[in-house]
Design goal:
3 domains, mainly alpha
């Protein structure tokens, strides 16, 4: 039985789907029009993306059906660079960055519905991650979840991203440094 009084979130989501939508500086008549535009662009990119070692074993139509580009693609996302270019800020070495180490017990989120909806043993509840993101970033920062299901062949990406992080920041974060070192070790690369 459907709720006769949809939540504000459901109302806003329905409004966004049915009204004009802005994405990457372009305005579309609806969310469906936005999706169709970016699905066409993704379809054009698939032959080149298929050459990548991290491309999934799947038919093009399955990838397109599972994707909601540019936000999510069921393959390496060709829109990521465009997103970062549009929303990111270049690193400025003249702006000081310092955060004290963040050490707290993580015990929240395991009863949250979103956490319980997915059954894999290595997941961390999103509610446990939020305090760290709030501590180490400021509003508007782009956060790369570099460990969201990547496999061994993706260590090169982890290394490339870590090498773009200022050395001081990398050295101040023991966990980040550990992941970088582990990626170097597993890939056989030198620091």
């Amino acid at each position: 039985m459907s709720d006769p009084h949809p939540s504000l979130f459901e109302h806003e989501t329905a409004t966004k789907r049915n009204g004009p939508v802005e994405c990457f500086g372009m305005t579309f008549e609806s969310d469906e029009a936005r999706r169709a535009h970016f699905l066409d662009r993704l379809r054009e990119e698939l032959p080149e993306l298929r050459k990548r070692p991290d491309f999934p074993v799947a038919e093009d139509e399955d990838i397109l059906r599972l994707s909601d580009p540019p936000y999510y693609t069921a393959c390496p996302n060709p829109f990521l660079a465009e997103f970062v270019e549009r929303h990111g800020q270049p690193y400025d070495a003249t702006v000081p960055y310092h955060r004290e180490p963040f050490a707290v017990d993580v015990s929240e989120g395991k009863t949250d519905q979103l956490y319980r909806a997915h059954g894999y043993h290595t997941k961390v509840p999103h509610l446990a991650i939020v305090p760290s993101i709030l501590h180490y970033t400021k509003p508007g920062d782009i956060v790369l979840d570099g460990f969201c299901g990547w496999q061994d062949r993706d260590y090169a990406t982890i290394i490339a991203v870590a090498r773009k992080i200022p050395e001081q920041v990398l050295q101040e974060d023991p966990k980040l440094l550990m992941w970088f070192d582990q990626a170097l070790t597993r890939s056989g690369e030198d620091a």
